[in-house]
Amino acid sequence: MLGFAGAVWQLVGLRYPGNTGAAIRTAEVSGADAVVIDSDFEHGGRREALRASMRADHFMPVFWERALEVLPRARAAGRAITAIEDSGRAAPWQVDLTTPQLFVVGGERHGIPQPVLDACDRVLRIPMRGFIPSYNVQAAVAMVAGERLRQLETDST
Fold it and tell me: CA torsion angle for 74, 76, 80, 85 (degrees, to 10)?
């Protein structure tokens, strides 16, 4: 799946199966090639996440692997590795998202762990104006996935 030309989503450190499932569903509906999850969910948590995804795993592969093992393989397959974190400098619409990408999104409390963030090629930020310091993980996935789809549609016209 890392050799495909589209998007793969790496979810790191998510703590809530419901949020994980919503992010999986959003990735699938946006046409992602796969989702890779780095979490400490036991069997029941994994099953709950897949149920919350509305069984998106029937249409798109979902893998459970550690991010620091996936990132070098993604890079070797020619993917840009793009983190989505509040420390980013560029907004999603300021960069080309049409190339093969591994998008990395962090957990609800601590974001992307620093060793994973350090292994990424670039860091995007999604502008925020409210008082809560971050978006729900599914919302972050949706915003970047939507921008990627917009760019792909613009390229094909």
Answer: 50
